[in-house]
Amino acid sequence: MTQASRFDYSVLEKAPRVPGKPRHKTREVRIGSVVIGGNNPIAVQSMTTTDTHDVAATVEQIRRLEEAGCELVRVTVPKPEDAHALTEIKKRIGIPLICDIHFDYKMALAALDHPIDKIRINPGNIGGPERFRQVVRKAKSRGIPMRIGVNAGSLERDLCDKYGFPCPPAMVESALRFIEMAEEEGYHDIVVSLKSSDVLVAIDAYRLYAQLADYPTHIGITEAGKPPYAVTKTAAGLAPLLLDGIGDTIRVSLLGDPVPEIAAAFDILQATQRRVRRPELIACPTCGRLAIDLERIVAELERRLDGRRLPVKISVLGCVVNGPGEAREADIGIAAGNGKGMIFRNGEIIRRVDESEIVDALMEEIARWEEENRYRLPAMVDAEGLGRRRLPVLPTPPASAS
Ligand code: SF4
Is 349 a pocket residue for ligand 1 (Cβ < 6 Å)? Predict the structure, then answer.
């Protein structure tokens, strides 16, 4: 008599075979030439570190951000001279310009006299509901969207008293009460952020918010500090949200020059498969079984593929232990053995080459893949998912005879 298993295998049969969750359904909000929310790609943004009124320095930094791929840029507007510089800055840059306002609602009103594309308000320090409403009315009359940017570090006192400390429910209540005030003014061009330097607080706050509202979210871990730890910390905070489908625009906040924030943001989007734009290289860590000079091969491949917008999955493994299996799950793969490489396409071995020819052979296969997919590529670049398209559709098991 067969003994019943202690595991409930039916859980596995009912589990989804294709991984991943859909995105949180949010409204679309237009920020100049970029639309966020809905099914639009998750936009990458950054913030300048210059004095905004130093137009030359601010424009120079924004141009470097643009070159790195930044899609939305924010500048701080703490003084009247910063507001006065906005028109000139806007004229000289190519991406939407966002103004960041703290403390002084008059600075928000002043910024809205210029051709800016979005304004960010911290509701916890803008001076109360009436001042917030004045900014909303002016933003509405100018057709400019607003981010209600809640920050755990500057939450309203009554909410801290009510909840005991700046915890996720307190942050979300802050956002919701200001959303309701904006809606009472007939204003819906809203983006929400719920930032904290504490990863756990930020994750719970955004998850709670997503249960309650559908305005798009700007996600980030504030004051993450200095790279490389800051990048790891940000990824630890944003990946769970992105995998849950939360987040419509992303900022990685790093101490220092903001340009490296852009590559880090795109890496997080690529790794979570929320926005795939470049080749995904799967490479093993190597070990004593290594049969080829994998580091050299991967470095050369990275060099040749640098800057290419090809959402192709390439696996490069150093021996036959996992090589063939990984190669089968990739679009193009290689498994090495005895100084040779077996090249796979769509799970089939198509050729064997000497180690010295591996990189050239992979590049030839990548070019062939690009040619075969040329009609699909525009829809694949910056879209979600990588590799899922290659998962086999399993046949339905035959009904058991009884
Ligand atoms: S694929 Fe082979 S060489 Fe690479 S880590 Fe695994 S066992 Fe080692």
Answer: no
Residue 17 lies in a domain: no
Q: What are 317-338's pLDDT values in tens digits?
A: 888 777 777 777 889 999 888 7
- Identify whether 384 is part of a domain: no
Q: How far is the CA of 62 from the centre of ligand 1 (A)?
A: 43
Decide if 394 is inside a domain. no
Q: Please choose from 294, 322, 326, 338 the residue to mutate so as to test ligand 1's pocket, defined by most ligand atoms within 8 A of CB.
A: 322
Nearest CA to ligand 1 atom 2: 319
Between CA 322 and CA 317 the distance in angstroms is: 7
d(CA 192, CA 201): 16
CATH number at residue 306: 3.30.413.10
Max Cα distance, the chain (Å): 85
Task: Find the domain containing 54 and state its range.
Answer: 29-271
**Closest CA to ligand 1's atom 5:** 286
pLDDT one-digit tens code per residue, 342-390:
998 877 889 999 999 999 999 999 999 999 999 988 888 999 887 544 4
Counting Cα atoms < 13 Å in the Cβ hemisphere of 173 gives: 15
Span from the CA of 272 to the centroid of ligand 1 (angstroms):
24
Answer yes or no: do 105 and 159 share one domain.
yes
Does the beta carbon of 288 sit less than 6 angstroms from any atom of ligand 1? no
CA-atom Rg of the chain in angstroms: 25
The domain spanning residue 252 has which CATH number? 3.20.20.20
Q: Is the CB of 282 under 6 A from ligand 1?
A: no
